[in-house]
Amino acid sequence: MANTEQEILTGLAEIVAEETGLDTADVALEKSFTDDLDIDSLSMMTIVTHAEDKFGVRIPDEEVKNLATVGDAVSYIKTAQD
Amino acid sequence: MTSARDVVVTGLGATTPLGGDVPSTWEAALAGKSGARTMDNDWAERYEIPVNFAATIKVKPEEVLKRPELKRMDPSAQYAVIAAREAWRDAGEPEVDGERLGSVVSSGIGGVWTLLDGWDTLRERGARRLLPMTVPMLMPNSPTAFVSLDLGARAGAHALVSACASGAEAIGYGVEMIRTGRADVVVAGGTEATIHPMPIAAFAASRTLSLRNDDPEGASRPYDVDRDGFVIGEGAAVVVLESAEYAAARGARVYAKVSGVGLSSDAYHITSPDPDGTGQVAAMRAAMEDARVTAADVVHVNAHATSTKVGDLTETASIRRLFGSDADHVQLSATKSMTGHLLGGAGAIETMFTVKAVAERLAPPTINVANPDPELQVPLVRDEPAKLPGGDIAAINNSFGFGGHNVALLIQNA
Fold first, then answer.
1. In this structure, which of B100, B230, B359, B389 has its CB flanked by the most CB atoms within 10 Å?
2. Which of A15, A37, A49, A63 to mutate to test the interface with B (most CBs of B within 10 A)?
């Protein structure tokens, strides 16, 4: 089932908040996972695993390094669902 | 009297079946409360496990820790961090250089919830569903690693494993770190979180658990003639150890000193203690020699006493053999009658009890002893706490583990 970009952002923000303790409002499209949200590679892979589960997509390891911002991840998930 | 080389206890922390911290745990222990209860799950019926009760933790970590902390740590590490933070606050948050601060927190079994949940995930949903934190959560050094991260302890983070003696061995190692000059302050203790159907079924398979399903609170009854095994418990306890010199310089409140560490191994049988008690006697003797005290000085022993037929009496026979007639003035407490058996956490919670007993001159009671075993050879504190004498006193906490590990820690008033 495909989600809207807003639904994906909301769902992803919940996953990130759960993993990091950040407020969901901080997880905005333009935020960088590493520079703005201070997410290390272990946490990033945890977020990816939960996102794959939640959105029914597969995000290969080699793609993860291209997901610099929250927006990149939302777009990737959206494309993968469509 | 304390000398500069002494190691003192300046902080205590715990989360146990009796309470979410040291004050509530100690109060419940003095009141003779049991932490054992029927479990709120269907494991006994579902897996045909003969035991449906345990001494489960009183205050759930969900009430204390933040959500990301809960997700990054196995329960064994969660309990350790909760206990370590309390101990650290209790010690007045010493402003020690991280290079001079050590962490020694042991678990007897490790992150079984994480390991077994991971196996379930792998079988049911495949390798890609395993979380990247699985390994750092299941490893048995995870609790000490998280404690060292939490407090910035960089003098070394260690996790000695010796089954049910692990928590005491950790504290003994912490003492050695200070004595050998590696650290000024060490956070040391033990933790366990194995109230999971697999370990419970496995302990039941070893025929060591009490099967008193109709009376959980009366099930842990060390030295009672009708004892039928131990009650599995969970939780953690942590002490803050400091060199007496460092504690004095910062004006720290001192509970007691850990002045003797005695270690031995039976090399007799993988689970049964040597019936001659040779290893137990050796550990207690070593602790007394280390502290330069004699049996006449020892007024209290916190027994390992798990409520098994053989183990309880081996220990009291060992005490009698080593102490001779001096055993007549020992006040023996078996606090597992109230807490259940915290496995890797046991030696730590019982050290905490021993430190409190020495500091407050009050030995905690042993409950559920309706009919003392006629072969019990040492005076037992029953039902009500017993006063300990004034002046300079010494007490011993014994911890023994599957594998033949014997640890005796000698505690003296400061």
1. B230
2. A49
